[in-house]
Amino acid sequence: MHVSQNLPKNLLMGSGAMSKVVELCESGCIEVRDQALLALGFTVRHDPDIRDYMNALNVMDSMKRIMNKGAEGMMEIGSLLRCVWAVSILCGATMPRDRVKPPYS
Prior knowledge:
The protein is mainly α. The chain has one domain. It has 6 helices and no strands. Helix 3 packs parallel to helix 6. It is globular, with a radius of gyration of 14 Å. The two termini are 28 Å apart. The mean pLDDT is 82.
């Protein structure tokens, strides 16, 4: 994680704001839901500690409810795509920004 992002992310975690973002991931308003899903994914994508913190908040319960609605055809495709993207990050796709790519043969 870039040094300039440490303070804002720590403030988000300490204030409890991210638990509210998780709640907004299930909002009935498409725009609010999609922005909350993006905020969640972008907040955790380069920081395994924050990813683990969000998983400790049971964020996967919300993601599962959204995906179930999508499977039933009751969720807009854009929200479903953002949810699956966020789930991939929450499941371990998080990579530090400075990670060196492994050599492939």
